[in-house]
């Protein structure tokens, strides 16, 4: 089986910002270029209502 994941992409302007806590936050632009959902529940995930949202629901029900 072949993985969708490829080598890391170089960051481009608009791919991320730093929040008030100093953490890097990836934007929707970055996620769309990457092309898949990692399932981590990212703030700007364009697939949040799809597979990513389902994984988050499952994680919450296991606690």
In brief, what are we looking at here?
This protein is α+β, with helices and mostly antiparallel strands and 63 residues long.
What this model shows, in words?
The protein is α+β, with helices and mostly antiparallel strands and 63 residues long. Helix content is 30%, strand content 10%. It has 2 helices and 2 strands, in the order ββαα. A two-stranded antiparallel ribbon has the order 1-2. β1 (16-18) and β2 form a beta hairpin. The radius of gyration is 13 Å and the shape is globular. The N and C termini lie far apart (31 Å). Residues 55-63 have low confidence and may be disordered.
Annotation keywords:
single chain, 63 residues, alpha+beta, two-stranded antiparallel ribbon, 2 helices, 2 strands, 10% strand
Beta-strand residue percentage: 5-15%
| Residues in helices, as a percent range | 25-40%
How big is the Rg? 13 Å
What's the helix count? 2
Largest sheet: 2 strands, antiparallel
Structural class: alpha+beta
Q: How many E-type strands?
A: 2
Strand order of the largest sheet: 1-2
Q: What is the average per-residue confidence, as pLDDT, rounded to a whole number?
A: 78
Query: Per the principal axes of the C-alpha atoms, what is the gross shape?
Result: globular
- Oligomerization state of this entry? single chain
Order of helices and strands: EEHH
Spatial gap, N to C terminus:
31 Å
> Could you list the spans in which at least 5 consecutive residues all have pLDDT below 50?
55-63
């Amino acid at each position: 089986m072949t993985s969708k994941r490829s080598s890391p992409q170089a960051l481009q302007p608009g791919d991320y910002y730093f929040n008030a806590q100093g953490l890097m936050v990836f934007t929707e632009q970055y996620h769309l270029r990457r092309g898949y959902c990692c399932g981590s529940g990212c703030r700007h995930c364009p697939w949040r209502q799809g597979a990513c949202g389902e994984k988050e629901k499952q994680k919450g029900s296991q606690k």
